[in-house]
Amino acid sequence: MEQATRTETDSLGSLEVPADALWGIHTARALENFPISKRPISVYPDLVRALVMVKQAAARANARIGVLEPERAELIDRACAAVLDGAHHEAFVVGVIQGGAGTSTNMNTNEVIANVGLGLDGRAPGDYAHLHPIDDVNRSQSTNDTYPTAVKMAMALTLNRLLAELEDLRVAFGRKGQEFHNVLKVGRTQLQDAVPMTLGQEFRGFAHTLGEDLQRLRETLPLLGEINLGATAIGTGITADPNYGDAVLAELSAIVGESVPGFRLQTAPDLIEATSDAGVFMTVSGALKRSAIKLSKICNDLRLLSSGPQAGLSEINLPPRQAGSSIMPGKVNPVIPEVVNQVAFSVAGADVTVTMAAEAGQLQLNAFEPVIVHSIMQSLVWMTEACRTLRVNCVDGITANVEHLEDQVGSSVGVVTALTPYIGYAASAKLAKRALAERATVARLVVEEGLMSAEQVRRVLSPERLSGLEVVTAAIPVIRPDGSAPSGSGAR
To answer: Fewest CB atoms within 10 Å of the CB: 16, 261, 367, 476?
Structure first.
């Protein structure tokens, strides 16, 4: 059975579109021209919401300054409210990757709002004499000011969700730091045994670095609040009433409200610069990349610390999430850190894409904002989900192999570093070499050599001192040139 269609016309000619479609001819042409990504813009709900917020604010502003009939403005307002409530997102069908600097996205939005409004008025889709996608929904606007404004808002909305998940992950690592606060282990530099620390210190370090990235990401929010509504095509404001810019800023600010803490809209001081510049997107992408790479480094550490369980470090246990092999029974892989690593790789690649697209813009407009938007929005969404799955499916369930860690510290030659202020570097190096060769403990050899008493060694090598939890503030006796300690010296 043939699908019913309606005929729509633009400056290029006429096309048949499905009779009940909420989109029209401009969207139909985009579907023909850009069958690239196979991902519609509705894959990013925050982008749809932001686009519709801009249209709602524009309708209210146009009615306020008297350039749009109140009845038409009301229909647009009601249509926008319906989409903001979650309806009709499936009608936002153009691909995320598109030519035209976002024109297809803007047209798709105009057509959906117009046809939803017509439906609210009891009219059929396409009856544009009563509510027109361009003349009414797009009044006082251009793609070049509505699209970048909407994408900045969408990024702020999605970034706010990432910040919440990143904070939850930071807290989760902090809880593990407290849980493991007295679990002594061997610290490592360049993958070689170094000096002792606690597992709690290691996990608190993870929490602290995530906190720093939270701050860097929050710092990008005010930058995303600078918009260019009223700039229209290139920043000169052609076709827009002189009062429109202030009116639409006030209306959009009221719609956005306090949905994103720390996010406040303001009109750019130079609309020509703001219409052509993509610097803010590089800043956001760079902060995202920093956060992703540091999170990936943490995941590398988790994989190393849990390696084994018999022939690796095996200091911690990650929650077993799934069978690790189709051929090796009982094997369990660190799949959650691995997937977060892959998200980080993608974010790093997206940052290169954003950088190249920002550089490639010419003159008064950057034609490549669609790939910038897709790259950053995907990174934001994937990072948000990566933080959540790392916390829920991994970090919250990590346990420590306490006995194994105690054995490692007891047999580690790295503890000799704590003795060097008392017995000297040369004597310490000699003892470390002997301990490795004889598989003996440094503590026993120091006592055997008569360099320190057993009680002195016990004090210096206590977990609190080894990990720095107990700070020695008194003066340490000076080591003689020959490496021997002065008589009567010892640990305090």
So the answer is: 261
